[in-house]
Here is the input.
Amino acid sequence: MKTKPFLMFVMPSLIMMIIFIAGPLLLVIVQSFQLTQNVFERVEQENCTPFGCTTEVKTIPVLDENGRAISETKWVGLANYRSLLDFGNVRKAFSAGGRGLDDVTDIAFWGALRFTLMFTLLTLPLVIGVGLLLAFTINAIAQNLRGPIIFVTLLPFIITPIIGALSIRWLFIGDGILTAQLERFTGQNISLFAQGWTIELLMYFYRVWHVAPFAFVIFYAALQTVQSAQIEAARIDGASRWDIIRSVIIPHLMPLIVFVSLIHLMDTYRVFDEIIGFRAEAFRTSLQWLTFDFLTPDDTGNRSIGRASASAILIMVGIVALLIAPLRNTWKEHNQR
Amino acid sequence: MENKLFRLPLSLRITTWTIISIWVVIATFPLLWLLVMSFKLPLDAFDANPFVVIFGPNTNNLAGGISILTVLLALAAGYILLTAFANREAILERFSSTSEGTSPWVVVGVYLGFVVVGALTFMFVIPLLSQLFKTILGGIPLIKWLVQPVMGLTTQHYQEVWFNNGFYKQFLNTMFVTVGVVSISLTIGTLAAYGLARTRTPWAFWILIAALIFRALPQSTLVTGYLPSFIEWGLYGKRFAVIVVLVAINQPFTIWMLRSFFMNIPAALDEAALVDGCNRLQAFWNVIMPIMWPGVITTGLFSFLLAYNDYLVAALLLDGETRTMVPAIISYFNRETTLTDQLEAIAAAASITFPLFLLVLFFQKQIVSGLTQGAVKG
Here is the structure.
């Protein structure tokens, strides 16, 4: 195809992506250096009671003719970043009397970063492991039973993430059915939503439950393309079942294990729905939740766009760091062609 | 891989089935429990004894229940429907003309037929039949127990949610948004993917790489960019604003997936059409699209899921009347003060899940092929 018809075909999609993805990205960069605030004015108010008059000074928002608060936007340089990263308190945490890392993770941004990274890295091997296990076991059963079992397996993957998280939360919340059984079994009073680490464990569980089916489908499809001649040859050479898995099947699956890992890293780094579904925000937050929270109007109806932008930029720095290695590989492959 | 090569010894077969059984329980239990609870009164639904939750004695006494005969009827109806559905190829063949193969509209029609028949059976036919049997058999001493209600079941939470709380409004909003997102992103995505699959310009590589980076962006980053301008231009709370945003977020994924489907269609086909005097657009529309439908349907499914499951964008850009289902549920359970409120949230959650359940039932093959397509070619 020549360049001109190519551009005609691509144009609508390209315009869409430029206006609604690249555009907002640039805006976010600009906004992260700005602060938008309502304009306030100081008004002297005289309160008169039968016992005399007092004057008090009040700050009230300035309204325009429609009664909406007027806001102004100022350039503030790195102030948004500074207030997010809060280096002052970080330094204090490591100086005498501070509790070190414990204090650092009490700062919203660093706590969210800690959770997001741990969540991403700890669920990865679990997802790959459960995915492989399911692929191997389901591949070993009779053909006509596989359909229904794959159907059941797809359910946790396809369900609305927030509803999935809620459905697991409901099993454990308060005296939920599984908590009740656990309590009966251990004879102790258990409340899984009263402290951070139990919620965190449930979130790990949910994520593996939700993503392992995806890994399974990919690995299962790849297992169908293993050459049976290769396995037969290995078997004639005296390889045991385990040898075959290790030196024939796993190498065959390796590119897909890398693929699933990459997708998982990308998706899990954006962890957000779990925080809402498990209502974990009092104990655990993630980077994307932080941005969401800044964007949600507070009690006075203000959104901290500036700080949301700064946190969005910091998330993107992480994404770029994550993607640099695979992108470099693609670039190399592209040049070789 | 042939089974003969992998004939397992007994010990391994037992291990395999143990693992699969455990997984089946883990995969379905949270969802099944959600469903069971949604049909019970609070007294039963939050009981610590699982049998009380399942059989609902209090619900049975206070709000009625179903008899053993009804359960048997429902099981039989479910079995018949599923068997008919498993043999849907035969039904499809009967409805399609012999020469042209099955058109997508016939497939849609037959699937809709299944939904309608299923809904009618479970909502009207079975309740009517069991009422009928109850009046006929209720007086006969020895088989009376068959028709007496034993398992508590009430639909009052669903009625409360859908009619009194106006959940149907949120349902319509979600439908509006998802239909918009799917149709727009497929239209512009198919065009772009076709261009990208058939060109040799170096631009294509860069567009695809940019799309890959865009795919990795968190949605909140983009919404941060939109929000101030949307509020300023009065687009806040408008459903089409959400459609546009979701289409843009979805576009990178859509073009990657559709492109890999187009790559599977030999380019010789378009060239033949061009030689025969078609222009590019005619070749695309008359020659390539007719064999592209499976790919378009598969990609459409994933666009649907993205729009249907979205919380973040809808929660930040919509409010009040225009809100979609998922954010609405979260607000339900933010005010969950009484146990009945909680059960209404649970009934709403079950209602959201049901269409997804049908989606997997109908399109299992396409979902699996879509997932592997992206992996193998992407």
